[in-house]
Amino acid sequence: MATVTGQAAPADACFMLIHPRLDLETPNLQTLKRNLERSTDAIKAEALQQVISGTLQGENYEPLLMHIIRFVMPTRNKTLKKLLLLYWEVCPKYDGDGKLKQETILICNALLNDLQHPNEYIRGSTLRFLCKLREAELLEPLIGPTRECLAHRHAYVRKNAVEAIASIYRTLPHLIPDAPELIGGVLQTEADMTCRRNALGMLTHSAPGVAVQWLKESAQLVGGFEELLQLAVIDLIRRAARDFPGEKALFIRCIFELLGAAASAVKYEAAATLVALSSNPAAVKAAAACYIALATKESDNNVRIIVLERLDRLRARHEGIVDDLVMDLLRVLAAPDLDVRRKALGIVMKLTSRRNVDDVVAMLKKELAKTVADAADYDASLDYRLLLIQTIHSCASQFPEVAASVVELFLDSIAEFGASSATDAIVFIREVAEKFPDLRQGIVSHLVSSFLDFKAGKVMRGALWILGEYAETPDEIRQVWARLREAIGELPLLAAEQRELDAAAAAPSAAEGPEKSEPRAPAASASRRILPDGTYATESSLTAKAVDVSALKLDSKPPLRAVLLHSDFFTGTVLASTLTKLVLRFARAAGADDEQQANSLRAEAILIMAGVIRIGHSAFVATPIDEDSYDRVLACIRALEYMDEDSEVLTEAFIADTQRAFSRLVKGEVKRAAEEERQHNDENA
After folding, report:
1. What is the mean pLDDT of residues 207-233?
2. Are the C-beta atoms of residues 637 and 533 closer than 8 Å to each other?
């Protein structure tokens, strides 16, 4: 008998729905009568199930009522007795004139016997059934035995007796006019917490004055109640607070007591009730501290997220009151779940102010250091590290006074970050260099010292842009240039690679010996070509053949050279632009005394750019250079070629314009962030 969904009879209220079995035929009355008359309890149970299901689907089984009373009601089988209670619920109890049928007297007699049955299960089940009855004629003879069940030795009977009396008093209060006093006495004398919970629930809905009086007498004992009764006390306080404003101090005192309860559900409900009762800063802080404790100690991640969402709503409703708890909230970061950490960090950012920003950043730095040191779960640490970097970035953007310490942290650790984390870090460093000119010299110095440790192309591009944009003095340009030469390696580009390839090709021939060596192939025909930069090159048929690049050992090469040989020509264009900026800046800042060095840097820059193009057209890369990258590098070569003639124009194009464009970009980001924050505050207002 599946309790899913179905269609109840339209005339009578019903507390259950049964899905019809479409694969079974509807039995006729004669078959059901014959099965109900059988002596086997299993057959009777099956027939009674069919009667209940058919009645709910609208079948007319009224003629079977007397058969069920005669042949099924006298049974002692517990399954049949349970089915009988379901049948008494759905069977038609009124005749055509709207009067109660005569047969219901027999039903009432059976229920009376069950209420006095020695088996506590049968008594309890019958009491639960009384909660569903709405007929005064049926309930009136049962009031006495129901009251007697309040003193039964078994708690299962007593708690169902309380529920039955509560239901009768709600629907037919004239049958038990003294129910509040009766249940109040039970609440005072009862030892079982479930019975007391049911009694307090009845008084909360039907006689809140009696419940409040009991709470006043038991206020000192609230902290020692079991979880169910504590939750019932919270429900009483929530419902009675409006009708009994004079007892507000009592309610708040009890709620503060329940904030220290052992059960998490009690703490959660108590915190929610406390902020509903009072907007006092002490009450709000106590509720917020309770939420933070729950989010820290609970093991279920779903519970943590729900609690953090409630804390976020509390923060939005009471701006500035819970800011002092931001360090306690950071303890939630010990949770292993990334969603919990993300939610906690989002609230931390909203609670951060100028008073606590230093402490927040210091704690985030410690967490970031843990992710770098933790190699056990690399993927989880990588995602968490990226989240921390983004949070620190936002924190430094809102509070510029911590930008210097954050930049120093990122610069010291950027070589240990993964590609995505390091990219976010370099983007942040670039913004800080634009916003805070006093930090530029230190940023350039740190990047120069760390540049050889960078492996990802995105990180290199960001670092190259910063070095080209903010290395301004001749000494800084010399340091940057020396480090870039180390990152590029031997010039011209591809010379070392060609030697390695030749050595790798010659090694097998030397191992075979002269007697097994193959005859040397004839020399390939060669032709002279003029490259785009004006230099000459020799092209032979051998250069068009595929090259085995596995012998080049790219991982052991300098970082910039390895990136170019991996076909990352976008990085090559950024390198060309950086070299052009450095040459233009050095020529303008050095003066006539260093003209020879300026020309040397200019020639070396052109040689490197030509090498980038040469790599892109060689067989050493899997993918040739694209047209955009080729045009960009070629434009940089031509800029240096005509540098003496158009110095002012080139300086304006390569240096001034890029500075203005990036400055507008940063200001636009700041304005957009401020607008989003204003909209968010308006929505929460």
Report:
1. 91
2. yes
